[in-house]
Amino acid sequence: KIPEATIIRLSVYSRYLTQLDKKGIVNISSGEIAEGVGGSPAQVRKDLAYFGEFGTRGVGYNVRDLNQHIIRILGLNKGWKVVIVGAGNLGSALTQYKGFRERGFEVVAVFDNDVNKIGLTLNGVPIFPITKLREVVKEQEARIGIIAVPSKYAQDVADHLVESGVKAILNFAPSVISVPENVELRNVDLAVNLEILTFNLALKKNY
Amino acid sequence: KIPEATIIRLSVYSRYLTQLDKKGIVNISSGEIAEGVGGSPAQVRKDLAYFGEFGTRGVGYNVRDLNQHIIRILGLNKGWKVVIVGAGNLGSALTQYKGFRERGFEVVAVFDNDVNKIGLTLNGVPIFPITKLREVVKEQEARIGIIAVPSKYAQDVADHLVESGVKAILNFAPSVISVPENVELRNVDLAVNLEILTFNLALKKNY
Ligand SMILES: NC(=O)c1ccc[n+]([C@@H]2O[C@H](COP(=O)([O-])OP(=O)(O)OC[C@H]3O[C@@H](n4cnc5c(N)ncnc54)[C@H](O)[C@@H]3O)[C@@H](O)[C@H]2O)c1
Ligand SMILES: NC(=O)c1ccc[n+]([C@@H]2O[C@H](COP(=O)([O-])OP(=O)(O)OC[C@H]3O[C@@H](n4cnc5c(N)ncnc54)[C@H](O)[C@@H]3O)[C@@H](O)[C@H]2O)c1
Fold it and tell me: How far is the CA of B14 from the centre of ligand 1 (A)?
């Protein structure tokens, strides 16, 4: 099994290689990649080794080829259509975020059950009533759903998303939800990120 | 070194114990904790064992005592004052998020360099000009800074935050930044969370 930390670093390498490609840089060494993203050359080589042989000893890697490889490994060689449920503070920030599109994720629709929000658009993306979720997911061939509703509705929304046919769910509500085996689930808890910081501060008695 | 996954689970255990305490539940077993948060009893015991002996064999754990222990381990036994730099889409969603306050994090000020935003308030939290960062951090005794500005300004803002005296930084800009040894840094890249999902889908050839 490939460590999650490796997948996260691959994404960072890819972002860096994309920048270099734009600057016209053709070849790069593992040392130069490590310098650019703040890691070690050995870590770069180890991460890439999970996926086969890349680059030539002494010459390094071809920037464009390596980036294409990583993009394929991350499943980003095709675009992904995303729907967001919950057009509140977080949902609307995510809908308007240009960074997703740069990585190949297109938010095609947002859903809510608040009549004051339905019918509006966020950065051109329409807000539909939650009752239209199944229809829009099918029509748009959306594969990924993002949950941005309060915790007490998160499981219910997850069930809706699974029924509508999405293959993966990113859940921002701080509650434990469950999905069938064949659906990928990832939970993001922003408050926990702060708690990891305070844990480290408490450990170092550094207030 | 304590694995990060353990710290994340501690936070989830604490949230669950808080819910149980509110319902008046006095004792609980590692099996019941595992059931409530979706894990295994052995994992619960292993996580807690990093921090000493809790609970009594056969009786289980006292809900309130265990929760107090975990809260102290996570450094949450005191409140933390937080400042956010960037009052855009993400910064304003984070400022208005009630979930941070529940865990003991109070956003006391937001900073921006856009004259149209300075002087406004978000949910009662004032938006100051970035030039006032040092003064407000000192006055409010803020210890944590959150970066919610575009990538190209992230390092500059990090330097400002370090100079102003914060002890920990949570960075949402998808760029590699560096801070001195004595400052805790954590990067959150929301797009990478989607890429982990697509990596897993590509692995399972499940589109
Ligand atoms: N705002 C943040 O920065 C932030 C940070 C971390 C986590 N979260 C989590 O993200 C979620 C959303 O937070 P928020 O701050 O955007 O809340 P919010 O109250 O601003 O927005 C929630 C939205 O969900 C809609 N909604 C509620 N139930 C629904 C349902 N069954 N179907 C469709 N829509 C429904 C509401 O009408 C509302 O528009 C919460 O679970 C929160 O804990 C938010
Ligand atoms: N919106 C999202 O959902 C989201 C998701 C993931 C990551 N991010 C990241 O979070 C950051 C903020 O994103 P956003 O969508 O809120 O962008 P935004 O453009 O809506 O907001 C950025 C804010 O930062 C302010 N700003 C710029 N430079 C500044 C400086 N030097 N000092 C103080 N303020 C400054 C701007 O005036 C603006 O108000 C970006 O790095 C983005 O990549 C955002």
Answer: 22
Q: What's the domain count of chain A?
A: 2
Q: Which ligand is nearest to the CA of B97?
A: 1
Domain hosting A132: range is 80-192
Q: Which of B47, B141, B140, B132 is nearest to B85 (CA)?
A: B132
Answer for the pair B180, B155: CB distance below 8 angstroms, yes or no: no
The span from the CA of A66 to the CA of A50, in Å, is: 14
Pairing mode, if any, of strands B80-85 and B121-122? unpaired
Residue A128, phi then psi, degrees to nearest 5? -100, 160
Contact B193, A188 (CB under 8 A): yes
Q: What is the mean pLDDT of residues B102-115?
A: 97
CATH number, domain of A120, equals 3.40.50.720
The span from the CA of A145 to the CA of A155, in Å, is 13
One-letter amino acid of B45: R
- Nearest partner of A186 among A204, A168, A203, judged by Cα: A168
Q: Return the DSSP state at B62.
A: E
How confident is the model over A6-61, as pLDDT tens digits? Answer: 999 999 999 999 999 999 999 999 999 999 998 899 999 999 999 988 888 788 99
Triad A145, A147, A149: Cα angle to 5°: 150
Q: Nearest-CA neighbor of B190 among A78, A63, A24, A101?
A: A101
Chain B 96-125, CB below 8 Å of chain A: which residues?
Answer: 96-97, 99-100, 102-103, 105
CA A51/CA A73 separation, integer angstroms: 8
Domain finish residue from B73, B102, B128: B73
Residues B103 and B169 placed together within one structural domain of the fold: yes
User: Closest ligand 1 atom, CA of A89?
Assistant: 16
What would the two tokens of residue A68 be? 């294409």
Percent of chain A predicted with pLDDT > 90? 89
Same domain (yes/no): B60, B29: yes
Q: What pLDDT score does B10 carry? A: 96
User: CB–CB of A155/A129 below 8 Å?
Assistant: no
